[in-house]
Each structure stands twice: as C-alpha cells, then as structure tokens.
Amino acid sequence: MNTTAKPKSRLTPRERVLAALRRTVPDRVPWMEGIVGNGIASVVCGEPIRVDWSVAPDGFPRQRGAELAEEQKKVNRVFGKDNINFSAFAPVFASKMEKASDGSPVMVGDGLIRSRDDFECLFKLPPPDDAGFIANAREFVAHKEDYCAVACVRLGIGATLLSMGIEAFAYGMSDDPQLIGCIHDAYADWTARVVPIMEDIGFDVIWGFDDVAFNNGPIFAPEFYRKHILPKERHVVRSFTRPFISHSDGNMGPLLDAWLELGQAAIHPIQPDVMDIGQIKRLYGGRVCLVGNIFMTDLVSGSPDDIDRQVRERIEAVGKGGGYILSSSNSLTDDMHPANIRSMIHALDRYGWYA
Q1: Which bin fits 270, alpha (ψ -120 to 50), beta or left (φ > 0)?
Q2: What is the band of 355 on the pLDDT scale with cuts at 50, 70, 90?
Q3: Among candidates 292, 227, 234, 232, which has minimal Cα distance to 259?
Q4: First to last CA, the chain
Q5: Which domains does the chain have, with CATH numbers?
Q6: For residue 57, what pLDDT band results from cuts at 50, 70 and 90?
Q7: Which of 53, 116, 189, 307 is deepest in the core (most CB within 10 A)?
Q8: 267: buried, middle or exposed (CB in 10 Å: 19+, 13-18, 0-12)?
Q9: Of 101-105, 228-232, 325-329, which range is least confident?
Q10: Are 283 and 92 in contact (CB under 8 A)?
C-alpha cells in the first residue's frame, strides 16, 4: 500500500466497492457501514443528520426515498464512505429488543411466534411489491449519484430468531424443528421475491443481516444449519444477480465453512475480539472479500492512535491484493468518540490508497 501518493485516476465509490467485492485491486480500500447513528454523524459532519426511519403500520420502513439518500450522502462526503443503504427488511414479530446478556451485539427479544398457533394467527408479511415501498426505493436509487446503493435484507434465519426469541428457538431445535423451518422458509421466500425488485430498480449490492452467533460461538450447530437453514438460503442467494454480502456478529468460526456455501461475495464484520481476520484472510481470502473489523469497543473508549493503528494494520495485513473493505465491527454508534471516527477517516486516506 502507498501511504503518500494517491493515484491520478480515481474510481467512483460504486466502482471501488464492486472491484473489492470481485477481489480485484481498486484505487483505494473502500469503506462501508451498515448503520451510522444520527448523533455521531451530526457531530462529525458539523450539521444535523437524520438517516433513521420510522416503520409504518404495514411493516415497511418509510424511508423518505430521496431525503434518506441525500442525508447519507452528506455523511459520505465527510467520512469518505462509499455506500448508502436502503432497508428492505421484512417485519419481525417481537415485543422487546435488547442486546444479549453475554455482551455480544446480537439482538434478542420477546419473540411472539412461539408455536404453530402463533405462526398461523400472527405471521403475516406485507406484499413485497407494495407501491409506497417501491416508490421510496426508486427515489433512493435516483438520488444515489456515484455511490454504491445497497439493499439491506434478511435471508430468513435472522428474522426467524428475532420473531421466535432465543428461548423458543432453542426449544424448537429439538422439539419442533419443522416450525423453525416454516417460519424461516416464509421469510426466505419473501426475500426471494423482494430482491429481484430491488435489483430491477437499480441497487448495486444486496447486504443480508442475519445474526446467528454469540461471542462464544454460533447459536446452532453446523449440522442443524446445513440441514434446516442452508439449503433454502443457498437457493435464494443463487437467484441474486448482484453481489451479496452476509453479516453476522459473534464468533462465526465453527460455522464458517458451511456459511460460505451460500456463495456470498463478502462476509462482515469478522468481530475482532473473537475472530482473527488475518487467519480468515489466509484461509478464505481467495474465495470471499472481507469487510471489517475495526473494533467497536475501541471506537467508543480507545484513543485516536489506537484507531489509526488498527486501520493501518488491517489494510497492510488484509488489504494486499484487494478483497478488503474497511468497516467497523458492527456499526458506528452515537456513543463513539468523534475523535476516533475522525482518526478512522484520516487513517483510511493516509494508508488506504493502492500504488
């Protein structure tokens, strides 16, 4: 990597991301985030930023299309970030959401779909071709400029876990795996319908957020995943015509070989306190792009020097030869120190350019 000279010819943010996802060498290491909090964005940008959205009664995020894109572009111009995100999540059925007790970023809650009766009575998803939802998506893409427009989805297992809750899901794995399959397949079928719509509208990348691991390992054994989850999700992903990034926090090591059978272009975020991104690069870097893994805890409570060092080390160790996209180890949250975010911005510009 060249830490001083910048190339004369630069790629657009969209071109940069797509080159990295192909595991070729772009002009600079790209930077992608799933979520950037309004508070931290506003402080670092020096103006009010609002990139969140409300959920309408029909279950769809009402994201204000053009306005959402414009707000995210304000952040990108200051940060040097390359993606803007639009939510195409199906609704989940849960009454309370909070972080898991072990401190991992996985969200758990009081799931409402705990039995077959619950599934039959409560489980109803909005139509993927909802006119308002599609209009917002079209507005968003129309305002993307040269940024990489990302449609955020859940393949199925993440929404299933959230809708059942960890306890009911755990019992279901032994007592009624068919119920898990019914819920999961309904979500997967919905995603299989919504993604072609997003691709036709003009989104560049599909990013799936399906948390399935704690810090001590996956929620289920690889054998359960291969039997009950992977076949359906692999079929869905193979229908995509855009690059697919898959996300799960926690220690995905025991599940990694099976997870990569989805055929994704990239994995995120390779949580640094429980996974070694250097080892993942050595073992799997020829198959998949790596997105991550600047530690959230250090972005909150570390020093700017800590962040500068992490960015430099990730780029030197993982960015060589392409196939790496810078990212936090989950998202940029409002409790992070602005000086640390600024350090990440400057470090990427200092170390991220390919000679």
Answers
A1: left
A2: confident
A3: 234
A4: 6
A5: 36-274 (3.20.20.210)
A6: low
A7: 307
A8: buried
A9: 101-105
A10: no
Q: What is the largest CA-CA distance in the chain?
A: 63
Say if residue 305 is exposed, middle or buried (CB neighbours under 10 Å; 0-12, 13-18, 19+): exposed
Which pLDDT score, from 0 to 100, does residue 100 have? 45
Please give the Cα distance from 249 to 211 (Å, whole number).
6
Task: With H, G, I as helix, E, B as strand and everything else as coil, classify residue 324.
Answer: strand
Q: Whole-angstrom Cα distance, residue 11 to residue 279?
A: 29
Query: What average pLDDT score do residues 270-278 get?
Result: 98
Task: State phi, psi for 314 to the nearest 5 degrees.
Answer: -65, -45
**Pairing mode, strands 217-218 and 213-214:** antiparallel
CB 341 within 8 A of CB 348: no
How remote is the C-alpha of 97 from its chain's centroid? 18
Q: How confident is the model at residue 105 (pLDDT cuts 50, 70, 90)?
A: very low
Q: Coil, helix or strand for 62?
A: strand
Give residue 209's pLDDT. Answer: 97
**pLDDT value at 96 more than 80:** no
